[in-house]
Structure formats: C-alpha cells, structure tokens
C-alpha cells in the first residue's frame, strides 16, 4: 500500500490500527500478552520462533538491533497505538509487518479463522512539533480511560482518583513504565529517544493537566 508520507530517520510517528470491520482483536489478557511479547520480539533484526521461547525468557531473548525506537504504546479491545522514533527509512515498515503478521497468524490459529485481521497495513501520522509529540504520548496513555468513563473528554472526569487507580492497574500500555513501575515490559521501550518526562514526577504532572481539564460549558 502506498503512503502519503515518507518515513524519515529520527522523526517521530504515531502508528495505529484497528480490527477489520472494527472487530475485537484482543479477546482476553492472553491475546494482549501475546501482542506485547511480539512488540518486543518484532522490533529486532534477528528472526525468532515464538513457540520455541518460554514466557519468562522472552524479554531476555537477543532480538538483535532495534528496527525503530518504541516510545509508548497502548492496547484497546479493537485497536492499538504505538509511538515510535524512526531509525532509518525502512525500519518502521519492517517492524509493523513482522508484528501484524505474527499476531494475525496467532489470532487466526486459536480462533480457527482465516484472512485479514487488521483494517489496513497500518496507519501513520508524522509528529511535527514538540507540543504534538507530548500530546500524542499522553493521548496514548490516557486512551484506556474511555473504558470506565466513555465521555470524559466531553464532560470531564467524574472521579479523578478512581481513574488514576484504573490506569495504575492497566497493564497493557507503557503507562506503568513511565509511572515508575519496575517490570520487564519496559525493555520494549527506548526512553532515551524521548526527550521529555525524564522522571515519574514530570510524567504525572503533565498527565494531571489533562485529567483535571474541564470543557467550557
């Protein structure tokens, strides 16, 4: 599929995709865990055979050099978001092809189905400013809020503390890795590629501005 934008080295891009016909692509935590494992494994130059790896050794697997710098990600029921910094002009495409192919093969096998799982190859938006970069980073991490408060962007949060607790329990995004949790999933990320929110306090202060936002009446 031809693209309207070129993927240039050192630039940031918002990558996303959803299930074909808006179908659910993550039925349970097993599916979500599999996709997160594949985020790590697919972002490398070395081939891998998933069935030869044990879950507790996946993040220790030598996947070779990174194809792109993953900055943040989030999984929802029928779509996902990934923020990356490009390393070269081909790495993102190779990474996304490996990721989509591996996950589709897994999903089709366990659900006894055939054919396309995702709506398109993948969607991409170029991040062309500092403010937009910080916004997308936060947007990705706040995306799960609509599970518990679907209209929060239109009316504001009803329960700020409950939402924060929900985010702290949502394990299928990189939110916890920026919130100071020490877990193996942080090996997916290249935080040094992202020049903002160098510590937990900066990250939480920026998100707080969005969480306390109230639309004008």
Structural account:
It comes from Candidatus Vogelbacteria bacterium CG10_big_fil_rev_8_21_14_0_10_50_13. InterPro entries: Transposase_17, Transposase_17_sf. Residues 8-143 form the Transposase IS200-like domain. There is one protein chain. This protein is α+β, with helices and mostly antiparallel strands and 217 residues long. It has a single domain, classed as Transposase IS200-like (Alpha-Beta Plaits, 2-Layer Sandwich). The chain is 37% helix and 13% strand. It is built from eight helices and four strands, in the order E-H-E-E-H-E-H-H-H-H-H-H. It has helices at residues 29-42, 91-110, 130-142, 145-148, 152-155, 160-169, 175-178, 200-211, and strands at residues 12-18, 68-75, 79-86, 123-127. It has a four-stranded antiparallel beta sheet with strand order 2-3-1-4. The longest helix is centred in the middle third of the chain and has 20 residues, at 91-110. The radius of gyration is 17 Å and the shape is globular.
């Amino acid at each position: 599929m031809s693209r309207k934008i070129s993927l240039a080295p050192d630039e940031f891009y918002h990558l996303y995709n959803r299930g074909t016909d808006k179908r659910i692509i993550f039925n349970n935590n097993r599916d979500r865990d599999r996709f997160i494992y594949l985020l790590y494994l697919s972002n490398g130059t070395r081939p891998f055979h998933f069935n030869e790896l044990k879950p507790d050794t996946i993040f220790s697997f030598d996947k070779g050099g990174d194809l792109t710098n993953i900055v943040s990600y989030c999984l929802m029921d029928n779509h996902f978001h990934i923020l990356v910094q490009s390393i070269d002009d081909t790495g993102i495409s190779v990474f996304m092809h490996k990721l989509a192919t591996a996950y589709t093969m897994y999903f089709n096998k366990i659900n006894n189905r055939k054919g396309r799982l995702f709506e398109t190859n993948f969607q991409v938006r170029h991040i062309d400013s500092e403010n937009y970069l910080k916004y997308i980073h936060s947007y990705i991490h706040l995306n799960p809020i609509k599970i518990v408060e679907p209209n929060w962007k239109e009316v504001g949060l009803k329960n700020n503390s409950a939402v924060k607790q929900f985010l702290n329990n949502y394990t299928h995004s990189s939110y916890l890795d920026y919130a100071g949790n020490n877990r193996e999933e942080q090996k997916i990320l290249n935080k040094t590629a992202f020049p903002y929110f160098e510590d937990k306090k900066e990250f939480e202060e920026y998100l707080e501005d969005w969480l306390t936002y109230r639309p004008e009446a």
